[in-house]
């Protein structure tokens, strides 16, 4: 691994932000010099301690418009809450309902399902053919979400419906004049997702959206970084692989910005916060993704890497699943030492990522 190779990996990865959200990326980069900075009614939060403070020490309005909770609640209207928008007992009950499937034993069960899919998915590399890692990630994510929710939905149809539901919801919340038909588009996409799942409550749809969109964004970006930076040696090493996976999830920060709203007063990174203030919590900067390259031999440490999964009572319940899945993807690919072929950014996706990213075995 050389710094030139890491620079090449970083350059390619930046394209997913620059092609999909150039203004936001520019604003965040320009303001990251301070732990937290107020611009009008918005507080931008960049550093690790301030990010943790915001997620654990400030009362948050979980249902406010423009927050993850508010958007999910509006898009997936139906019976029950969607975790992101909940507090207290209802929230704890929702988390408990997921704990079994996403705990160590649950993930081992899901692993038995995805390993054969993965081996079949990478097999064309052995014949000198290309593999599209985005298509592979969609199949894995759709299969995992269907199994987790106990649904018979086809993996690719479910992945497509979950991506479309998230993309429609994001389009409906873009800054600027209201877009005609945006609300109807969001409702149609959510209805289709529910249809694919065969009914169920809003939480099921939310879990499918959260699992599919993050996996489809994170896995191809991590694989591209690993290939471009020449990290397949670490990926092949069973001792280093878990730390490498954690590092790749840290630098790709699949959910790079968490939009939240303060419900009461407090202080974040020395910046006073009032009730009603908008908080843009930059997970990507909190985890040091912009300044420290990924290295399984010299990792940033779990405490920092974990920040890409949030913090506090709403911390991502799918973190173990996402990490183990990426470890298995890296292991399945490592023997081929793949290089990246074609890639195209997905400009419509809810999270920055690739629409196509092919790899082939190094000759
Ligand atoms: C690279 C992969 C992933 C990343 C980066 C990620 C990131 C996040 C983040 C930042 C949050 C918000 C945490 C907070 O507010 O403190 C979250 C919440 C959540 N994630 Fe993930 N996630 C990933 C994968 C998954 C997967 C595979 C699932 C599968 C079930 C999942 C399910 C959820 C759910 C249900 C919540 C809401 C939790 C709550 O509000 O209590 N995530 N995730």
Alpha-beta classification? alpha+beta
As laid out across the biggest beta sheet, the strand order is 1-2-7-4
Note the overall shape: globular
The N- to C-terminal Cα distance equals 18 Å
Q: What fraction of the residues are assigned to beta strands by DSSP?
A: 5-15%
State the share of residues found in helices, binned by percent: 40-55%
**How many β-strand stretches?**
9
Bound molecules: protoporphyrin IX containing FE
Q: Give the assembly state of these chains.
A: single chain
Low confidence ranges: none
CATH architecture: Orthogonal Bundle
- CATH homologous superfamily - what is it? Cytochrome P450
Query: What is the CATH T-level topology?
Result: Cytochrome p450
- Biggest β-sheet, characterized? 4 strands, mixed
Q: Helical stretch count?
A: 15
Would you state the CATH class? Mainly Alpha
Mean pLDDT: 94
InterPro entries: Cyt_P450_B (IPR002397), Cyt_P450_CS (IPR017972), Cyt_P450_sf (IPR036396)
Protein name: Cytochrome P450
Family: Belongs to the cytochrome P450 family.
Organism: Streptomyces katrae
